[in-house]
């Protein structure tokens, strides 16, 4: 029988809690749900009012993995959904606004991805993001060098950057910006990516060309496009281990000397949140938002 639990007055059917989703560590679905429940306080503010896309892996990362933006079949009527404009036409999407919605989404076994805008103003960004993606033999250590350059460049324009791991091999740089059309944010991000390549030509690449990637850090500025999404802060990733897209301190970025120094798994996050709180809280404060030049 599928266990039924109540979360803030909402009844949820939570299935297969003992199922191992990450064979490399034996991490189970029940532990996935526990992880999201214990990080909800810092995670939910970064999801609120943003349409959520799901990268689902119900049988673990070695099973079927599929991406969906539409409301999944069987979604409870108490989960917030809304019509969202998209290039290919409007779609009804999910909004994870509270703990019951988060636990429902976690029960689907999914990565959580969001755009850089909220539903009140679709296509008008309140965040800028750079996805720093290393091409082997480059690693997150090289991403950190690029992140530090971008941090200073953004600061020169009055924009305060924060960093998080991608939960995979790279690093994400994010900053709050005053509401700006996504096209303009993408244009500005590309300008900085090109500048970074000029400043560090042996290390940085602003184009996605696969043949040029080995040994360099691809500064992906394109995720600022209104139609694009980025792995949300604190989301688990569909990797061999339960790695997390985890916020990091600038000291950790500056001192990173080996890739495993910036690899964080689900059990690591509770003590980090206890020690640091939400390192990405500046993204939530409108007074911290910078104006693009």
Automatic annotation (TrEMBL):
InterPro entries reported in the protein's UniProt record: LigD_pol_dom, MtLigD_Pol-like, NHEJ_LigD
Class of the enzyme per the UniProt entry, highest EC level: ligase
Protein name per the record: Non-homologous end-joining DNA ligase
Gene Ontology MF, one: DNA ligase (ATP) activity
Keyword Ligase included in the entry's annotation: yes
CDD domains in alphabetical order: MtLigD_Pol_like
EC annotation from Swiss-Prot or TrEMBL: 6.5.1.1
Name of encoding gene: ligD
Keywords, sorted A to Z: Ligase
Species classification: Bacteria, Bacillati, Actinomycetota, Actinomycetes, Kitasatosporales
NCBIfam families xrefs: ligD_pol
Matches recorded under Pfam families: LigD_Prim-Pol (PF21686)
Domain DNA ligase D polymerase: 28-278
The species this protein was found in: Streptomyces spinosisporus
């Amino acid at each position: 029988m599928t266990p039924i639990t109540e979360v803030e007055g909402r009844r949820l059917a939570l299935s297969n809690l003992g199922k191992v989703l990450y064979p490399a560590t034996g991490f189970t679905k029940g532990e996935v749900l526990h992880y999201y429940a214990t990080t909800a306080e810092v995670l939910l503010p970064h999801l609120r009012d943003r349409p959520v896309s799901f990268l689902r892996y119900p049988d673990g990362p070695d099973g079927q993995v599929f991406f969906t933006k539409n409301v999944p079949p069987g979604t409870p009527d108490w989960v917030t959904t809304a019509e969202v404009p998209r290039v290919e036409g409007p779609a009804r999407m999910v909004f994870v606004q509270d703990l019951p919605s988060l636990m429902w989404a976690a029960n689907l076994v999914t990565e959580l991805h969001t755009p850089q805008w909220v539903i009140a103003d679709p296509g008008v960004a309140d965040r800028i993001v750079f996805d720093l993606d290393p091409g082997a033999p480059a690693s997150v250590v090289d991403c950190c060098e690029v992140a530090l350059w971008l941090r200073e460049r953004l600061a020169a324009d009055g924009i305060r950057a924060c960093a998080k791991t991608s939960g995979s091999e790279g690093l994400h740089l994010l900053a709050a910006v005053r509401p700006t059309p996504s096209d303009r944010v993408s244009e500005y991000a590309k300008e900085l990516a090109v500048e970074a390549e000029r400043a560090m030509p042996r290390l940085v690449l602003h184009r996605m060309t696969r043949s040029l990637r080995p040994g360099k850090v691809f500064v992906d500025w394109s995720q600022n496009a209104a139609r694009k999404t980025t792995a949300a802060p604190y989301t688990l990733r569909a990797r061999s281990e339960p790695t997390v897209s985890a916020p990091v301190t600038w000291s950790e970025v500056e001192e990173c000397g080996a890739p495993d120094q910036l690899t964080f798994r689900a059990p690591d996050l509770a003590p980090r949140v206890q020690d640091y709180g939400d390192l990405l809280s500046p993204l939530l404060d409108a007074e911290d938002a910078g104006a693009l030049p």
